[in-house]
């Protein structure tokens, strides 16, 4: 039995935890390990370790920081298969998908390698006679990163390389459901030459999160998870004087217009609806189709679902199990609810064969048709392999539906009409928009983040917004005195 413990100043914690949690292999249903859950006191000790290491790291030159980042990038690339295997073993997603998440995280490390350029300030010579003005950005101190289960490597990597590159020290709290990948990635920082204590991992649940949110030496919190917890984290963290970005849940719509290529739209709906068993914050869960092409599109999707193989992520299947039995049962509960509320269950994911152990947390791809906005399968974030077709009469009806939704993470339009696509990207109230791209996750040098209930706070993740989040600005007004500057003048300084 594997024990997953905290990583403090580059070393595994040597203590004995009063509380531990179970870690499962979702493809077998068996408990594969136990994770130590930190007490508030231990979190305090880790923050103190990070605070001590921080001053040295904040003073490290950009040349030194960049060397560490490049080395980290190389190590992460070299170990991607190892990390992907850890993700599949605890999360369940198929290996290719796990590798893909590591690579998208690696892109953020590559972005952070350019930190000297990103931290360049402005300089104005002679703003007033012989007075120069310039701006600099400085690190915050200790920052906390709190991550969800669904991207155990990528989500921490959205924040950690940027935070470290900006000169901060980090305490990462991964999801207790699949904690091993985060530890494996964190160890690479030590190998890359990062001083001990700048990067730390504590495992835990609400107790650890609350300790981070209220600790006076934690200056900023980057959170990703479900909407109710994101809201709680934002409110608690900001009430304790911290800068907080809290990314929440989603209900992503894909709007298909009658002129779209229906084969491409069907492929995209399948990939974005069932990839990672729908456990993606950018998964498509509502397929909004103009009704003249709805029957045709539904038929093409049904055909494709028939060709998908669900099973153990190490066996070359298309889709893996859900993360826990409780989550699997919760998602399966929506199948009954959808039928009871009047939706047509076109494909039932509970039936069929699964290529894996009998006790795995299996649920196959599920398709609902004739879903309406008041049904729970439409309203709730299901976070499983359930795609709901909502039929609309026109582009306008589809747009109104999307804009009325309380979430605003990602959305996509499928059309060959450039004018319609351009209208959509202007009019839709969602943070990340795809035009014939079903999962429009921005590249690392843009920023990732939704609108409305999908993000609490002002800053999106990575890109220049990430650099701003992990630094604070200072403006210096400077004059090198010579004797001509003498004399008393108590008036408000004016630019001359
Ligand atoms: P979750 O909210 O249950 O957990 C997220 C983190 O919060 C974990 O580290 C967990 O330990 C901690 N936590 C859980 N309950 C808590 C509580 N009561 N008090 C304090 N901390 C608590 O989310 P999850 O199930 O791990 O992840 C899935 C959710 O994350 C989905 O809603 C998904 O949409 C969302 N998500 C959003 C994005 C995004 O970018 N917007 C990305 C990935 C996942």
From TrEMBL:
Aldehyde dehydrogenase domain segment(s): 15-476
Keyword Nucleotide-binding appears in the UniProt entry: no
TM spans (from-to): none
Cross-referenced Pfam families: Aldedh
InterPro entries: Ald_DH/histidinol_DH, Ald_DH_C, Ald_DH_CS_CYS, Ald_DH_N, Aldehyde_DH_dom, MeMal-semiAld_DH
Superkingdom to which the source organism belongs: Bacteria
Signal peptide as annotated in the record: none
Keywords from the named record: NAD, Oxidoreductase
Database matches in PROSITE patterns: ALDEHYDE_DEHYDR_CYS (PS00070)
EC number: 1.2.1.27
NCBIfam families from the UniProt entry: MMSDH (TIGR01722)
Protein name per Swiss-Prot or TrEMBL: methylmalonate-semialdehyde dehydrogenase (CoA acylating)
Gene: mmsA_1
